[in-house]
Amino acid sequence: MGLTREWYNLNTVGLPQKVINTIQSARASSTRSLYDCKWRVFEEWCLQEGHISFQCPVGVILSFLQDLIDKHRAFSTIKVYLAAIAACHVGFEGKTASQHPLVCRFMKGARRLLPVSRSLVPLWDLAVVLNGLKMTPFEPLEGADMKHLSLKTVLLLALASARRVSDIHALSVHPSCTQFAPGQTRVLLKPNPAFTPKVVGSCTPIDIEAFPPQLVSSGEQQQDLLCPVRALHTYMDRSKELRLNDQLFVSWAKPHKGKPVTKQRLSHWIVEAIALAYTSQNLQAPLGLRAHSTRGLATSWALFKGVSIQDICAAASWSSPLTFVRFYRLDVSAPSVARAVLGTLLSRDSTC
């Protein structure tokens, strides 16, 4: 389960194996793996300095953290290292290493010396990307290959739900998890019951309403090309024949065709969809694209269009508006050059 050193510490106290497993399950598997990696770095550093990693004095821990500061590591990175050390170190007088008074003061000082900075403007233009999703190779949807159908579906779902990639990765096509309303007017998506979210209890069902049909020049009604319900229904219908698992998103490429994709691969799909939406319009895709950026961009546009902060937090599974304000809110009020040139201003709240 990772964090072997923590297991030894708990075992020394005399706890049964099952109890230790339950205690270590308090952290997500990804967190345990991350802590285990950081702890091994600290162990190697202590070995070179001649210290016992899990019993070293507080001064040794502070020296290691200071070494990270001298190497210009981000404050968030230093916090992860300290959390890993606190999980595996025996602690001081019944408290974890991170609770030691000197460590607390050190981290406050590190926070002042290493201010957290983030971009306040979107890295990519939502209007440009949405316009690209309405063009070749994403449309017509019925004639698109499985690759571009998958890319479009996962990006629209990420934007419509504002959820983490891990939440989208946990979605299932099982009838108990994916339920379309009659006429595909809306869809309710639930994660696999075995899924444990990063924040326990935060993964609520995703309820998406279909966009109403549009009137074309001939007077006929046409399905909205950006409707996530339409894209999802088409994707599930097209992927039935190759699907080998109930996970919503499966691979289209050999030799993994039909098998569930990983969270990392799903992130690559989102980034590739954004980049392809740019290049399909002969535009250069921005550098440094990240799948996680969809959360901040989608929720910031929702706030700009008048959605309440409470509804935004409920949709994105944030327990407090402070999370959105501090880490995700972007300034989307000013039109970009690309938006002005292409004239793709969004005209409907549901699209944003």
TrEMBL record:
Q: Which InterPro entries match?
A: DNA_brk_join_enz, Integrase-like_cat_sf, Integrase_recombinase_N
Q: Which GO terms describe its biological process?
A: DNA integration; DNA recombination
UniProt keywords, alphabetically: DNA recombination, DNA-binding
Per its record, what are the GO molecular function terms?
A: DNA binding
Please identify the protein, giving its name as recorded. Answer: Tyr recombinase domain-containing protein
